[in-house]
Every structure is written in C-alpha cells, then in structure tokens.
Amino acid sequence: MDRRRFLAGSAALGFTQFFTGTAMSENSNEFYVPAEETSHDRTFMQWPVNKLIHHDVVFLEFLQKTIAEIANTISEFEAVTMLVGKEDQLHAKKYLTNKISFMDVPTDDLWCRDSGPLFAKQGKNLVVSHIQFNGWGNKQIHKNDRTIAASVARQLDLPLIDTGLVGEVGGVEHDGHGLLMAHESCWINKNRNPGLSRNTIEKRLLTAYGAKQIIWSKGVYGEDITDYHIDSLARFTGASRVLMNLPDQPDMKDPFHIAALETHDRLVAAKLDVDVIPEPQSPRIKSLDFVASYANYYVCNGGVIAPQFGDTVTDKLAVGALKRHYPGREIVTLNVDALGEIGGGIHCATQQMPV
Description:
The chain is α/β, with parallel strands linked by helices. It contains 9 helices and 17 strands. Strand 2, helix 1 and strand 3 (about 80-85) form a beta-alpha-beta unit. It has a single domain (about 35-355), classed as 5-stranded Propeller (L-arginine/glycine Amidinotransferase, Chain A), CATH 3.75.10.10.
C-alpha cells in the first residue's frame, strides 16, 4: 500500500480501538521532548513482518535487509534496539549484527517514527508522551503497531502519559527549543482527531512536546497514506533553523509541490533560517510514487544517517548541506530505495531515546 499516492476512499484495514485515559493537562509545561541532535541512550526500530501489508515476500525480505542495514549502520554510533516479536527474532538475526539488541514487541510494519514511543523528559526522568497511532487514519492494518508505544513504556517501566491525540510523531517536527511545525492535513483531520478543533489539537501538541509555538501549513489531504508528513519535507536542525528539500522546477499541478512551496513560504515568513536542498533530478527509481526525500535523515550520536538516490549532483549537495548543519558529525549515506518505494525514509524508520 503506497504511502505517497494512497487513493482516498480506499477501504480501511485497521482497527478502531484507541488508547483511552486521562489526557495531559493542557496547561502543563513541566516536561519537553529533547531535540533529535541531543545525546541518545539508544535508537529504536521496528522489524516489518506482516504479509497482509507486504504481499510480495521477496520485496518484504528486501525491506528487512534495508532496515537491517540502517540498524547496523546506526549501531556503529550508538545502541540500537529492534522491536520484534519473539517468533521473528531468529529470522531477524540473519541480517543484524550482534550489536543489535532485541525487545519482544510484536510488530506489523517498520515505521517506528509513527508507531513507536515518543520519549520526553520530565525533570531528570524519562516518560513516554503518548500519541496514539491508528494506522494513518485506519488506512493500514495496525493490530500490533497500535500497541507498540505502550508496550515499550511498560517494558522500560516508564510512565505513559496520554496526550489526548491520535496521530503520528512523523507528522510534527520540533526544534527542542519550544517550536513545532506541522501540516494541518495529518492532524486537523477527521480520520485522526474527529470532533477536536484546531485550537484544541494545537494546545495538546504543544503540551505533548513541552513547546510554546507551532507553525502550521495546509499540507495535502488524502493523496498519500500519511496525509503528507512534514518530516519528508522539512527538518529542524537547531533552534529556529530548518533544512528542507524542494523541486528545482515545481509542477504547479502537483499538490505536493504546491504544499511544499507554501510550507517554505510560511517558514520564511516566520523568520526562520531556511536552507534548501534540491530534490534529485535523476534518481535510480523513476516512479512518480517514489519518495526521494533528502530531509528524511536521522541524527544519532556523532553521525547523520542519510539517503542517497543515485543523482551524483544532488546527492553531493545534500551531503554538503548536512555537513553545514551538523558540523563534527560523520555523514553516512545509504541506498534506501526500498523505503522510498513505499513512501518513507530513514527518519520514518527510527525513533530516538534520549539519555
């Protein structure tokens, strides 16, 4: 099921039960989510196994090898824990080095940024600020994935704090200094948060991250499974500093290009420092559905794990931009075309646990 060109109105395959509990106080500002570039205890990732999602077993194995390569690469910089059910761990060990640890958490798919735990700090303690995953608005099976964040919190003996929100962490970017940015399309949407006003959703997001302000842009409704997650377009690289990718020659008939330009203009208007990488002109994969996002990279301890798409010119420009934004870190690029073919990237497949 393609994440970029998912057809609106397709039959929902997911489950509709949501986590319920006492929502966080909207006035509470006692905790915050640290920026991704701060020190990590470890990285969490998910092992994809569900053949009802990935029907082609050859491609599923290709996905697993890609996830393994990302995990093995990150493990050279910091600890990595793979979330995988006990019955699938022996198979996973075929591809993972002995540096990777396992946590017995059954999974469906690989998108740990969306269904994994969002770790926050409350004083010196860690908690999980819980945004309930529902398969991007019940567009995909998520029987196991909907329980992952709560399961990890339980196994780590961390408080699970309900934000009162349904959605995905990949749908919001934070700079760790009080500022968020997001597309309205994946939050102010009846498939995630029916009955909640934009004002209520905004307050709950700010509380969930311990932030003070959010910059919204419209995004794109119903054209991909995520309703246009911002982490494939723009990323905070520091306080009020943004790195994003844009097409050199926008197609003004393409809703994603139009939305990307609008987001860029909103960020500039907010007086943020915005740096732009051009999208690849000649990627290995030519399909219109392929997501070739340089912004979908992951920052770990001492390194940045980033995609390369086979366009020697723009691949080099992207590495140069990452070196500017993350001086002193080693930039490692990987061929993760398998993730691009199903609409995501390295950032979508990872989730950091702060020290």
